[in-house]
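Check out one such.
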Amino acid sequence: MRVFHLSQPFIVKMSTILVLIIYLSSLSGCKRTDSVKKSAGTDAKLHGTITLSGAFALYPMTVKWAEEFRKLHPDVRIDISAGGAGKGMADALSGTVDLGMFSREIMPAEKERDVWWIAVTKDAVLPTISARNPVINELKKQGVTQVQFRAMFIDETLRDWGELLGSVPKAPIHLYTRSDACGAAGTWAQYLGGVQEDLHGIGVYGDPGLAEAVKKDPLGIGYNNTIYIYSAGTNQKYPGLEVIPIDINANGRIDPEEDFYDSMTAMMAAIAAGRYPSPPARELYFVARGKPESPVVCEFLKWILSEGQPYVSSAGYVPLSREVISEQLEKLR
């Protein structure tokens, strides 16, 4: 039998290459550190803290995901606070939180600031009114066009419910909008051809606050994310709150293919099928300052895009397609 003796220079060279490979591997993607520890005979144990802030639209879904994730990883702490998409983006870019909850399109100026984002689910912004609106029956039959919504919220040339429907009695339109920098306002404004600052109305903080203000005012109109209009528990709209159907083809009536507002299930199906316009339908995101490197954060995101997706529909959101999920997972590799 022949015995091969390795020279000292060869051993040194191979050791140097091995060290270099290990170092480069540690720099790519989501790094594994002491946050993931293995005990003899057991699976990897995850521990650490994840902090999130931002969009009211994504807050209930994130809370549900956090609850289910912690059942699997009880040593992980997840702190979540709502405050609007603008706060989520600001907190993420400043490093105040690991992830910002974000609910509108990422702007070019934000992309230039080294923002990293990943889609996690879908929902929509809907025009809302009080169930006590005096012309609610006519609105449900006729609907409102994109041009008419713009005339209300941006141009302020349409100010009366009677004028809108070509009927009497006359009744002034009371506009409500969001006072905080948020994805719902940005998305609704984008649908109308503007930005949040273009929207007129009484400013109200937060999605729950805007829904409550509109519900109390029979002549009011606002806009809300689907989860603050429909109850995931009952599949119906919250008492006192109604949705104005959008006359998508602008033919002066709500056709059967435009009539999908009676239940959460029907609304979610319309969003998923693209029958409800986008915007105001949109993907919801988590954003961060650069690609996350924390193993705890990365495992949470991977779980959301895999085992976490079955919780989406029951929570009142629209799951991502397989193609989109594959694209998002690629961002984590």
About this structure: Residues 5 and 11 are 10 Å apart (CA to CA). The longest helix spans residues 8-27. Residues 1-28, 32-43 have pLDDT under 50 and may be disordered. Residues 36-122+282-332 form a domain with the D-Maltodextrin-Binding Protein; domain 2 fold (CATH 3.40.190.10).
